[in-house]
């Protein structure tokens, strides 16, 4: 084989034609390297649909590059010479292509980037320009701040990107954030659009067979795989959301409903995180939808806040604080993750719904992740590492840079409040208000201390009492502790006892 000038590594979550490491690629002298490796597919037990999505999208992207005349060295999982790891493959191809240079784009996982960086290979690293805020820019913004707040970061991003701004630079509608207008429960008469589905083609069928054979022990179903695996299909998914979802996203962003996994959510995170969609275009489309009058401000602002606020913010925190961030456990939790997280076999209807659809579709929307499965893990004092592993494994869109801060920081408050100002803890009343789950539940959401009382209620107060020494000083928890202090000792004791009973049942391996 002719020696090549440059090998450009493209990872499974970097399937973008605009990737920084591909920018100066010369098809006459350079080659792209793409590898399906066991280490990345198994460092946690990823949902089989997620592995299928990545391998299929990689194969489609390799084809698209080849159609542009680019030489692609594509290593399939079953290649007998496959070394099983990204650094191993880089070593092998660097040697066999006699490449003078290796170019790579920043990884989405500290673990992998560290492994590549310590492999001794001469790599030129490129910043991941798919994001709006580089690691260095975020570090500069965070510098000197003892605590970070997403809201202030978000305002800067809005100004920089000139999204939803008046001519004088002020926010349209007179406020930066319309969060309070994103919290309607779903009325019975409102129907969510049927989800856009994408039938597997020959490449995806081949990958589904491979994944079914090789990853049979991983939790989650392969059946009904319908995710987009090409840029064109991902664009269709996005357009579908613009046409049928975005307008109601504003009102029902926080709503949950039985057997409705998607409601008015875009379901784009899996495609976006692997490079099939372009963040700048998404933001510009939503901005245009607002100015054209086709969607209200609470929808447009709410959606843009997630994309340029939360998404960029959690990535910034991740790269600023890793690797120590992953060790955070400020409440000192040690309880094991209950088995029902992996099976969905629990009597709690909200948990059964959220976990069941996660195993089936590798998807749950934000409020299910935060206020159902996450809230339960927080209240029950589950060890953060185990919770993080579950989220990383189970969701189609989960990559360390986005999963870890959301889970460890936002859900478990295990970073001591660096990412978020207060724990997102809530009793069953919140779930009742935002969903129809409680009506179909064997537990009574109106009860707290009886045997059939909603477990979230006593666990909530147990959590509040258990961590009073830390949380009483939190300004945003003042009302909670006022309410606790108003209860008489007998009531507090009954809640504590019920909490203890539930926790010891979890420790005994019982499903609630
Ligand atoms: P929509 O509700 O339609 O939102 C639009 C987009 O906004 C999403 O596609 C996503 O790109 C972005 N977004 C919204 N909230 C966040 C957020 N908090 N952080 C980052 N991006 C956000 N998102 C992931 O992409 N990968 C993860 O591994 C992941 N893990 C999470 C773990 C927990 C515990 C929680 C609470 C949230 C997590 N999120 C994660 C954020 C959010 O739940 C998903 O992005 C969202 O559910 C994806 O579905 P959607 O595309 O229908 O999103
Ligand atoms: Fe969930 Fe409690 Fe409602 Fe049952 S009663 S669905 S456990 S919040």
From TrEMBL:
Gene3D superfamilies: 1.25.40.80, Deoxyribodipyrimidine photolyase-related, DNA Cyclobutane Dipyrimidine Photolyase, subunit A, domain 3, HUPs. It comes from the Bacteria. InterPro entries: Crypto/Photolyase_FAD-like_sf, PhrB-like, Rossmann-like_a/b/a_fold, UV-DNA_repair_photolyase. This is Cryptochrome/photolyase family protein. It comes from Pseudomonas lutea. The lineage of its organism: Bacteria, Pseudomonadati, Pseudomonadota, Gammaproteobacteria, Pseudomonadales.
């Amino acid at each position: 084989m002719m020696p090549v000038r440059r090998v450009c590594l493209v990872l499974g979550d970097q399937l973008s034609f605009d990737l920084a490491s591909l920018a100066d690629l010369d098809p006459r002298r350079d080659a792209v390297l793409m590898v399906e490796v066991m280490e990345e597919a198994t460092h946690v037990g990823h949902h089989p649909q997620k592995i299928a999505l990545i391998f299929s999208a990689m194969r489609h992207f390799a084809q698209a590059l080849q159609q542009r005349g680019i030489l692609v060295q594509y290593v399939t999982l079953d290649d007998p010479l496959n070394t099983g790891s990204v650094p191993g493959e880089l070593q092998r191809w660097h040697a066999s292509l006699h490449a003078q240079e290796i170019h790579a784009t920043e990884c989405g996982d500290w673990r992998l980037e560290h492994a590549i960086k310590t492999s001794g290979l001469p790599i030129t690293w490129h910043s991941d320009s798919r994001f709006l805020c580089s690691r260095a820019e975020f570090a500069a913004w965070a510098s000197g701040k003892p605590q970070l707040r997403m809201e202030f970061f978000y305002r800067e991003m809005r100004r920089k990107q000139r999204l939803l701004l008046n001519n004088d630079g002020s926010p349209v509608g007179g406020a930066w954030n319309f969060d309070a207008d994103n919290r309607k429960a779903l009325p019975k008469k409102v129907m969510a659009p049927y989800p856009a589905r994408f039938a597997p083609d020959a490449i995806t069928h081949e990958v589904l067979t491979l994944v079914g054979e090789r990853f049979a022990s991983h939790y989650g179903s392969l059946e009904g795989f319908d995710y987009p695996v090409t840029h064109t299909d991902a664009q269709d998914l996005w357009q579908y959301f613009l046409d049928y979802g975005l307008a109601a996203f504003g009102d029902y962003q926080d709503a949950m409903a039985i057997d409705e996994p998607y409601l008015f959510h875009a379901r784009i995170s899996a495609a976006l995180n692997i490079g099939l969609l372009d963040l700048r275009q998404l933001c510009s489309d939503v901005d245009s939808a607002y100015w054209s009058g086709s969607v209200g401000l609470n929808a447009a602002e709410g959606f843009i806040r997630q994309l340029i606020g939360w998404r960029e913010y959690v990535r910034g925190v991740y790269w600023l604080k890793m690797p120590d961030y992953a060790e955070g456990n400020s409440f000192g939790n040690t309880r094991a993750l209950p088995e029902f997280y992996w099976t969905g076999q629990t009597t709690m209807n909200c948990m059964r719904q959220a976990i069941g659809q996660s195993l089936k579709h590798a998807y749950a929307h934000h409020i299910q992740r935060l206020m159902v499965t996450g809230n339960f893990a927080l209240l029950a004092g589950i060890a953060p590492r185990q919770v993080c592993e579950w989220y990383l494994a189970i969701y189609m869109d989960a990559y360390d840079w986005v999963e870890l801060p959301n889970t460890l920081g936002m859900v478990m408050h295990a970073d001591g409040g660096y990412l978020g100002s207060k724990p997102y803890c809530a009793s069953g009343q919140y779930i009742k208000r935002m969903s129809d789950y409680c009506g179909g539940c064997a537990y009574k959401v109106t009860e707290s201390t009886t045997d059939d009382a909603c477990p979230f209620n006593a666990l909530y107060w147990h959590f509040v009492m258990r961590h009073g020494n830390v949380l009483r000083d939190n300004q945003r928890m003042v009302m909670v502790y006022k309410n606790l202090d108003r209860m008489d000792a007998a009531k507090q004791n009954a809640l504590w006892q019920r909490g203890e009973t539930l926790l010891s049942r979890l420790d005994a391996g019982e499903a609630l």
